[in-house]
Design a protein that fits this description.
Monomer. Associates with the 50S ribosomal subunit. Its cofactor is Mg(2+). It is found in: Cytoplasm. By secondary structure, the protein is α/β, with parallel strands linked by helices. It has three domains: about 90 residues, Rossmann fold, CATH 3.40.50; about 160 residues, Rossmann fold; about 60 residues, Alpha-Beta Plaits (2-Layer Sandwich). Helices cover about 40% and strands about 20% of the residues. Strand 3, helix 3 and strand 4 form a beta-alpha-beta unit. Helix 5 packs antiparallel against helix 6. It is elongated, with a radius of gyration of 28 Å.
Length: about 425
């Protein structure tokens, strides 16, 4: 139905600099995006402008240069590192006589290739339909042949109107199915909330090493690769953290500068794990020379999904690529961990990260002395299961004297399950 390029094609890349300081890093990132989409760049064309051209985005002379490059290189597609309007895309396609795709289209194509789960595929399809709905005319050039005349006039909708209606119906259908998935996720979150199980969500710029860190902390085998958007589908695993107990760790989709709004909206159910998290682990590529820009891009998306006020612990990853760097925890003036330096690849610093998690999640520690009747051996067993007993002995009356130490969340949960427990406090 839609004119869309497929992987394995050859492309002419276009990037326009709008400031005197040329953002070469942005162009290099776009090359990585294109490579991730299985497209081979055959030529890169750059230009400088104060503002986008209304008709071609680039100037008319530069547009002619692009068309000549397509002819000379035999490219199948022109890829712009910018968001183009539907009119600009059509004008460029007429001039270049080939497909023209903007940055959003490239990212959507990568997402379509990487989605694995039913939910992920639905989210990608929703984003694609929303993006392509404004470009319907591209898929229906036969409408130009419609003519009026005797026997051809009358009530009814045009083919384009029919397709727009079908598109709206399809979007409603996908939203309905995603709503069911979101309800299932919400039930899981409510169950974890009732059990006082904290959720830690990994966030960060794409290719910062989130999945590698997730695998290292959970001994899982989630797909991890040195490429942009290796992870699309959220993965949840349970881990045990000292003095905290069970914690749910969530691996999520990576963020990127100028992340298309349609994608943020489509991945609402996935990003909900981030919005509902107890703590965010913001994973950062410590060797990337765009560290500050990447952090700012992630914080921008977090603000867009209303997750910017959730407590955050920075994880500076890939220290194995730094010379003679020793893992460490950076603290604020209140001695609270704010940054941990680790290597997910080698495992360096992971114990320090778990220590920082303990400090950030444990909060208050409950410390009590209890006197349990002999018939309450079951309660004693519960404390042993929580690894909470520091000392114990039996008094002359046969009562169990226990000194217990455990996170306040575990204590409160136990008191809900065993209402008589506070009566045994000395």
């Amino acid at each position: 139905m839609f004119d869309r390029y497929e992987g394995g094609e050859h492309a002419v890349l276009v990037h326009v600099f709008f400031s005197q300081e040329k953002d070469i890093d942005n162009l290099e990132e776009f090359e990585s995006l294109v490579t991730s989409a299985n497209v081979k760049p055959v030529q890169i064309i750059t230009g400088s402008r104060r503002a986008p051209h209304r008709k071609y985005y680039v100037g008319e002379g530069k547009a002619e240069e692009i068309a000549e490059a397509v002819q000379a290189s035999g490219a199948d597609v022109v890829l712009f590192n910018h968001a183009l309007s539907p009119a600009q895309e059509r004008n460029l396609e007429r001039l270049c006589q080939c497909k023209v795709v903007d940055r959003t289209g490239v990212i959507l194509d990568i997402f379509a290739q990487r989605a694995r789960t039913h939910e992920g595929k639905l989210q990608v399809e929703l984003a694609q339909l929303r993006h392509l709905s404004t470009r319907l005319i591209r898929g229906w050039t036969h409408l130009e042949r419609q003519k009026g005349g005797i026997g051809l006039r009358g009530p009814g909708e045009t083919q384009l109107e029919t397709d727009r209606r079908l598109l709206r119906d399809k979007i409603k259908q996908i939203l309905s199915r995603l709503g069911k998935v979101e309800k299932q996720r919400e039930q899981g979150r409510q169950a974890r909330s009732k059990a006082d199980i904290p959720t830690v969500s990994l966030v960060g710029y794409t290719n910062a090493g989130k999945s590698s860190l997730f695998n290292r902390m959970t001994t899982s085998d989630v797909y991890a690769a040195d490429q942009l958007f290796a992870t699309l589908d959220p993965t949840l695993r349970r881990i045990d953290v000292d003095d905290v107990g069970t914690v749910v760790l969530a691996d999520t989709v990576g963020f990127i500068r100028h992340l298309p709004h349609d994608l943020v909206a489509a991945f609402k159910a996935t990003l909900q794990e981030t919005r509902e998290a107890t703590l965010l682990l913001h994973v950062i590529d410590a060797v990337d020379n765009r560290v500050d820009e990447n952090i700012q891009a992630v914080e921008s998306v977090l603000e867009e999904i209303e997750a910017h006020e959730i407590p955050t612990l920075l994880v500076m990853n890939k220290i194995d690529r730094l010379d003679d760097f020793v893992p460490r925890i950076d603290r604020d003036e209140d001695n609270k961990p704010i940054r941990v330096w680790v290597s997910a690849q080698t495992g360096e610093g992971i114990p320090l990260l778990l220590q920082a998690l303990t400090e950030r999640l444990s909060g208050e520690i409950a410390h009590f002395e209890l006197r349990l009747p002999p018939e309450e051996g079951r309660l004693r067993s519960r404390f042993y299961q929580l690894n909470a007993i520091e000392h114990e002995h039996v008094d002359e009356d046969g009562y169990l004297l226990l000194e217990v130490r455990l996170p306040i969340v575990d204590w409160r949960r136990l008191c809900k399950q065993e209402p008589q427990l506070p009566d045994y406090i000395l």
